[in-house]
Design brief:
Pfam families: Ig_3, V-set. By secondary structure, the protein is mainly β. The protein has 4 helices and 33 strands. Mean pLDDT is about 75; it is low at about 15-20, about 335-345 and about 375-455. The protein binds 2-acetamido-2-deoxy-beta-D-glucopyranose (NAG) (6 copies).
């Protein structure tokens, strides 16, 4: 505590003395100078007293950064003695005591110290002492920086590191900054800077690193100078593979079309360079490339009742691929009367609402009646909707929950790669399963587009 108090006291008294002195007889406008090599520099001093009423005596001395101290000029009002070594390089002029350095070079850096004794004629015997120190740096202006990149060609995401270097032909005390799309980059993550920031290494390079890079070189005597732009191209993908139908609906796993209908599908994935696409049909147990390119057209009359399609996107540069698979079902109304009545394509809104209401009422009744019974299972089905219909929510379920007791089988449609976003579940009575087609048809006929959850307690 004692130490802190005495330190504070000391600082206060020093400040007091400084302000005392500062308000006195000389004033130096700038105590720090950033000089340019080869240019003159004036260490200017303002004198705040009438020169003809005083006697003056003083020195200018120079302390290099290394600590070497040299007296440059010693002066009185009548005489000036300049160190011979500096005779051609310095100009000291009375009446004010400013010092001019004619042509700066690197050796001129350091602290310039002015010590001045003043004796007023009306107060002989009393000598005032003034001391000031001016700090001088000498720099070479920076030239336009040059940006370079290795490797110079486009790189593959996650498989390469990119090094960007920035250099200047001339310039001292240069600091570098990096911009991507005019946003300043800082260290961290995959971005590594050399100690002087002249090199940026991206380890490893990613899709989001694509863009236009610039470096900016700055020093005390130059405003930031920007390099030309350098584009970084990164090969990536395919990402986010999706199959869209002509109507703009995203396909799920199963897709129904009406007999005679013509539909087309578009396969899309984000990738650089653009993907190549192939469409593959997996019908009749055989895999066969049908078409190349993102677009597939299907005439339903050419189909068997069910056909599996697969779109494969391949990026030549990254050697990566992705696949999306779905099943196309031709809804055949001649197959069975009872199925047709339930076919979602013939659903009217009224029918949908009626079914929904009945289902909800059934559920509520069941909850009331079966409070004491233990729940046996939860049934749910999720399907995407046929494209031929407008978007309209449907619900369906078991109108009589007492029939829910029985043996159930879980059937999943085979295939679907990792990119599949929805999984398909089929649920049907064991005794009604004849083949896969029938099962799929059943579920499509009864379960509409929006996921409907039925929770039986
Ligand atoms: C000091 O004298 C020099 C040379 O005569 C002049 O250029 C400069 O402006 C003066 N500086 C001040 C602060 O009066
Ligand atoms: C001496 O002269 C200076 C400048 O003219 C003036 O500021 C100062 O007050 C004078 N001092 C006395 C004691 O007369
Ligand atoms: C990228 O840099 C990392 C870390 O220095 C290194 O382990 C890796 O091998 C480099 N990759 C390439 C492709 O040079
Ligand atoms: C390098 O850049 C970072 C921020 O981009 C900065 O904090 C750091 O001081 C710089 N280093 C040098 C030596 O300029
Ligand atoms: C269908 O393919 C499976 C396996 O790929 C094979 O076991 C089966 O014999 C094939 N069926 C026909 C009819 O070719
Ligand atoms: C894929 O790359 C090979 C060579 O690397 C090239 O010959 C071919 O044209 C490329 N294909 C596409 C679709 O870019």
């Amino acid at each position: 505590m004692e130490a802190i108090r005495s330190a504070a006291l000391y600082i206060c008294s020093v400040l007091f003395i400084l302000t005392e002195v500062r308000s006195e007889y000389i004033y130096i406008p700038s105590l720090v100078h950033h000089g340019i090599e080869g240019k003159p520099l004036l260490l200017s001093v303002e004198v705040h007293f009438p020169l003809d009423e005083v006697d003056l005596q003083g020195t200018w001395s120079h302390t290099k950064p290394s600590g070497t101290r040299t007296t440059l000029v010693t002066f009185t009002k009548e005489n000036t003695i300049t160190d011979m070594m500096f005779r051609n390089r310095l100009i000291f002029r009375q009446p004010n005591v400013s010092l001019l350095i004619r042509k700066l070079n690197q050796d001129d850096e350091g602290d310039y110290h002015l010590s001045l004794n003043i004796e007023f004629h009306n107060k002989t015997g009393l000598v005032m002492k003034e001391e000031r120190t001016v700090h001088v740096t000498v720099d070479v202006p920076v030239t336009t920086p040059v940006i370079a990149k290795t490797p110079s060609h486009a790189v593959v995401e996650d498989k390469a590191n990119v090094t960007l270097t920035c250099s200047v032909e001339r310039g001292t005390r240069v600091t570098f900054q990096w911009l991507r799309n005019n946003v300043l980059l800082g260290p961290g993550g995959r971005y590594h800077f050399s100690p002087d920031n002249s090199t940026l290494v991206i380890v490893p390079v990613r899709k989001e690193d694509m863009g236009t890079y610039r470096c900016v070189a700055t020093n005390p005597v130059s405003q930031g100078r920007s390099s030309r732009a350098m584009d970084l191209n990164v090969y990536y993908g395919p990402y986010n593979l999706a199959v869209n139908s002509g109507q703009g609906l995203r396909t799920g796993e199963v897709f129904t079309i009406n007999p005679g209908e013509l539909v087309y599908f578009e396969c899309q994935a984000d990738s650089n360079p653009p993907n190549s696409y192939v469409w593959i049909s997996k019908s009749r147990n055989a895999t066969q490339v049908i078409t190349e390119g993102p677009r597939l057209e299907v005439h339903s009359y050419k189909l068997a009742q069910t056909e599996e399609y697969l779109c494969r996107a391949f990026n030549n540069a990254t050697q990566k691929q992705d696949e999306a698979q779905f099943t196309l079902v031709v809804a055949d109304f001649r197959a069975g009367i009872d199925r047709r009545t339930m076919d979602s394509t013939s659903f009217s809104p009224v029918a949908a609402i009626t079914v929904c209401s009945l289902f909800i009422i059934g559920c509520m009744l069941l909850v009331f009646l079966r409070r004491s019974c233990h729940p046996k299972r939860v049934l749910m089905s999720i399907y995407n909707r046929p494209l031929s219909e407008q978007k309209r929510p449907h619900r369906s379920g078991h109108e009589d929950a007492t029939e829910d007791f029985g043996i159930y089988e879980f059937i999943s449609i085979p295939g679907k790669m990792e990119s599949a976003q929805a999984s398909s579940r089929s649920l049907a009575r064991l005794e009604s399963i004849q083949d896969m087609h029938t099962t799929i048809y059943d579920v499509i006929g009864q379960v509409p587009e929006t996921p409907s959850h039925s929770l039986l307690e």
